[in-house]
Amino acid sequence: TSLSISPTFMASSMLIFLFSAFFFPLVLSDPRSTQVDLVCGTVSAANKSNQNHFVVNAVRVMGNLSAQVVFNNGFWGGSVRGGNSTVYAIGHCSKTLNVSSCKTCLDAAVSSISSCLPATEGRVMRSGCYLKYSNHKFYNGSSYTSGSSG
Fold this sequence. Notes:
Layout: H1 7-28, E1 35-40, H2 48-71, E2 75-82, E3 85-93, H3 99-113, E4 121-126, E5 129-134
Antiparallel strand pairs: 1-4, 2-3, 3-5, 4-5
Helix pairs in contact: 2-3
């Protein structure tokens, strides 16, 4: 006797295989753990004093970023000014992330982007969130919460 497989069974099996191969990894992957892109600028602050102020300001604005993004429903932009430098930053979480996942994703983004310092610009995209900082204002200030300090 020979084994025969119907074309309908083959088509169904192929569809299940393709679905499993391409969609399950997307569903099962953790959006907080996948870094898609990290880009660091090449320009650093003009002198050592400005560079130190810039790094301190960047750490301050990014240290507050994940809490502000969560508090502001997934999106926040702000700045910190000190010495002769200002650092502008925005953070955004995908609407598919809950509060805890958003915070975890942005905390990981902050950790990654910190490797860009003392470059005056950096951005990181993860599968669930985005973060950018710069010494140039790149967003419309009237649309965002702005924090500044001395």
